[in-house]
Batch of 2 targets.
Target 1
Amino acid sequence: MPSPQGQPERARGGARHRRATSSTPQTPIFLARSVRGLEWLAAAEIKSGLNASVLAIGHREIIFSAALDSRVLALGSIDDLFLLCGRIEEIDRGRISLAKLAAGVRKLPLARALARVGRLRPIHRSSGFEVIASFLGRRNYKRTEIEVCTGAVISEVTGMAFHDHETDAAPERDVSWRIHIRDGEAMVGLRVALRPLHRRAYRMSSAPGALHPPVAYAMSMLSGAYPGCNVLDPCCGTGTLLIEARRLMPDIITIGSDIDRDRLLAAARNGGGARCQWIQADLGRLPYRNGFADCVVANLPWGRSVAAKGAIKGNMSMAVAEAMRVLAPGGNAVLLTSLGEKLVSDRVLWSIPIRLAGHWANIQILSAESGKPPACFQRRYGPSLRHMWTQFGASPP
Ligand SMILES: C[S@@+](CC[C@H](N)C(=O)[O-])C[C@H]1O[C@@H](n2cnc3c(N)ncnc32)[C@H](O)[C@@H]1O
């Protein structure tokens, strides 16, 4: 429920979430999972994209209520989405909690959750279901024990077969229940889509350093792109950033260049339907005139998973200077850098720390001209981005 001030609750560092029970059957409540550090941005997309009420924001999660329609499946900045079926309290670290959990799950409206998700996509009851459990903090029981004890109850209540994903080598199930325990509470949800939302159907070719699609989508939201503008990724790899930028805003012109021909071929395969131009070029000597690109987005080759080659080898400041040369006046560049490589420049407007593949990194927004606010504040998600960052944006680790 919204707080008395109409603000979502910050649920971080052990703080408890505001009650958000399923007592109002007409208003479904969802649990979205996100990359650490992007919870606030995902909340902005949810709030303005779905006209939703954001109820609570916590560690890698956003709880919100919204209409049950297919727009929830189009959210681009989240990793996964569950219909929240209910919460079970007094789940502590003791093993007795396993029995309490099973008893609590039995009382939840499991059949109603299945029926609701069934309105958005087909549910093949005969294929059975899986349970994925997780918890924060130390417990005297294992994740697999949570899955087995709740799976047995869900099977009894729904009449569907439980498949233990630890022992059952079958492919993923279409029905996936999620149990997440933190503090003294378990949240029980049902995955809304067939697969986690971060898995994109377009990704046919991957390569080391290929960007996590929700992060690419988030960077596009921060780029200030607008219909008809040129968006350039000068080290595009497999094309994720530009494909996601087009997903956010189909009417943009996208140009991707990379020094590596094989990666450009992979980008063309992934972005086959996305009408991008893919050009072989060295980021140290880009074949574009000054001010050519209205926005630049890039996941630079800092050397963690992909080494810089060509003119920028050992000279990343040359890469950044060249990206800024081709950026149009008034435009922004959104660069993903590892935390140790945080850019220090009077052109940096904003640094957003995120946790990616077990490491802290930074999304940094640079401006072609100093003294201007980030261009994204003037775009579709601008008011929500500004509001959610002010309320919930992370301070650097
Ligand atoms: C971290 S990867 C980018 C991944 C990309 N965002 C994706 O999702 O696949 C960095 C890219 O920089 C490219 N690269 C390295 N040196 C380069 C240079 N001098 N000019 C252009 N691209 C370069 C690599 O080939 C690699 O594709």
Target 2
Amino acid sequence: MSAEFLAPRLRRVRPSPTAVISDQVRALSAAGTDVINLGEGELDFDTPAHIKQAGIDAIVQGDTKYTAVAGTTALKQAIMAKFKRENRISYRPDEVIAGSGAKQLIFNALLATVSSGDQVIIPAPYWVSYPDMVALSEGEPRIVHCLESDGWKLQPEVLAAAITPKTRWVILNSPNNPTGAVYSVAELHALAAVLLEHPQVLVMADDIYEQICFVPGIFATLAEVEPRLKERILTVNGVSKGYSMTGWRLGYAGGPAWLISAMQILQSQSTSNPSSISQAATVAALEQGNEFIAEWIDILTHRRALIMNCVNAIDGLSAEAPPGAFYVFANCQGMSGKTTPSGDILKTDEDFAAYLLQSGHVATLQGSAFGAPGYLRIAYAIDDNRLQEACERITRACRALR
Ligand SMILES: Cc1ncc(COP(=O)(O)O)c(C=O)c1O
């Protein structure tokens, strides 16, 4: 048996670039190299103790069986209360669903609604998984390029020009991975005005980084800003980023009942309910407040400053301080044409990222993985001392270029 037995749909999909870099890091580490990983999209903070305890309690109390596919009643109530309290959006129980990570919910929503020939507008730079999920659903990713000079945000006239009769979805991700861009209320209003003109278009609001904002009160989500669009919006969120719970695999979404029901059917025939233990922990996360986030934001603000100072002091690199998420998306076009100590000429962002890994032993991700060649994503949510060391390594490696 060999790869020729694979289904044709798999040929449309690339392996996740983040997984590729993690494999390279593991291989180098296994060979004894001390690699600092600035490629991973997760916080280094521990899951808060009260949330872990709720998971432990669930195990001890025997909450270890199948639950309702879309989540327990307690979790649905906690999700509805969160949307009401923090986003001023009212959902009924049949309008919310929990799944094994936001990733699964986004995938199920696309798989349930996208057919061959349908287009999905994906503003670039984008989270690496969107185009491949669309391709797996047999749709056509319609990549729309956003500019650094526009703060990496989709402009209304660009959105209007990209919509065709075949457009099924527009994906909005704020705060954005990889740029950290956050859409203001006014910017969302301007996009909403375009979307109101096109009743066949659904909107995926991927709010997974909601809690990671450096400007208080800056976050807004489309269903709150334009309630007339609510019936066409899937608001996706989860506990991975804001509660440092990536391994618990728990995401949730709110949207029109017909869509939630379709996602639930897909889930019922694939993964079923998310882990009962993670559901119990998420109830605690959503109900018991997140006072810890202020301290996390302070720590991240310090780390962001470290990496910003490093990047902007290097000839050929530059970046603006991003208002959200925990990435710096640095312009590295100035590195193109430089020669490494071993005589190789750097041509692309991929060459530069590979050079930083092989020579500086710092893992980052090239912007082309996010649909934006000429940039580098630096994930800075790691221990301060290691981050400082990474900055020194990047600086040394860049100084060695001619
Ligand atoms: C923009 C974006 N959306 C969704 C996800 C998936 O999150 P989860 O861990 O809940 O599946 C990620 C994870 O990196 C992400 O960056």
